[in-house]
Design a protein that fits this description.
Blueprint lengths: L7 E5 L9 H11 L3 E4 L6 H14 L7 E4 L2 H7 L3 E4 L6 H8 L4 E6 L2 H5 L8 E4 L16 H11 L4 E4 L7 H6 L4 E4 L9 H16 L1
Parallel strand pairs: 1-2, 1-8, 2-3, 3-4, 4-5, 5-6, 6-7, 7-8
Helix pairs in contact: 1-2, 1-8, 2-3
Enzyme class: transferase
Cofactor: Mg(2+)
Function: Condenses 4-methyl-5-(beta-hydroxyethyl)thiazole monophosphate (THZ-P) and 2-methyl-4-amino-5-hydroxymethyl pyrimidine pyrophosphate (HMP-PP) to form thiamine monophosphate (TMP).
Length: about 210
């Protein structure tokens, strides 16, 4: 049984995290309540991602917070990460599952109801749905879907969903009302002067939305 909590899903960005680094940002965010950490670095090669991923894994040891690697299956396996996340233009989910085995968490990005309906629950464990809003951290993103679009795609998905794309602490309530299990954030934690406090605020908003 895979155990993961999508509530406060931190997606690391090397540029935004430059001041204190991705490893320290992640460590502080987990102290504040981040429940998953994703390593995403589109400019790094596999060797660099492995190096950063191993440092992250060491920093988060004992925290019981899964480390997910974005897109790079070789790095995810080498790091011994808890999971892999792929987009629609990355490796096909079924092939990714074959590569990583049955035990690793596999997440998939979806932008439409049709894509959500096609998900094989024996392959994919959760979906990232968005972009809810336009975001500068992923300039090539699809058209924003808003909370109405989020609700439609969540309803079509047979696995748990996390909302992504320009979402911040104040969007936790509407995202959960739309059916998401949590929110995936980048700039709401990365680059903030106090990542621990930023993560705590999101966690508190999630708790408030569930109350």
């Amino acid at each position: 049984m895979k155990n993961f909590d999508l509530s406060v899903y931190l997606v690391l960005d090397p540029d935004l995290c430059r001041e204190i680094g991705m490893v320290e940002t992640a460590r502080l965010a987990v102290e504040g309540g981040a429940t998953i950490v994703q390593l995403r670095d589109k400019h790094a090669d596999t060797a660099q991602i492995i190096e950063t991923g191993r440092a992250l894994k060491a920093a988060l040891a004992g925290a019981r917070v899964p480390l997910i690697v974005n897109d790079d299956v070789e790095a995810a396996i080498a790091i011994g990460a808890a999971g892999l996340h792929v987009g629609q233009s990355d490796m096909v989910a079924a092939i990714a599952r074959e590569r990583i085995g049955r035990d690793m968490i596999l997440g998939l990005s979806v932008e439409t109801e049709e894509l959500a309906q096609r998900i094989d629950t024996s392959v994919v464990d959760y979906v990232g749905i968005g972009p809810v809003f336009a975001t500068l951290t992923k300039p090539d993103h699809k058209q924003p879907i808003g909370f109405d679009g989020l609700a439609r795609i969540v309803a079509a998905a047979p696995v748990p969903a996390v909302a992504i794309g320009g979402v911040k602490a104040e969007h936790a309530g509407p995202a959960l009302a739309a059916g998401a299990r949590g929110i995936a954030v980048v700039s709401a934690i990365c680059g903030q002067p106090d990542p621990k406090a930023a993560a705590r605020r999101i966690a508190e908003e999630i708790e408030r939305a569930r109350a």
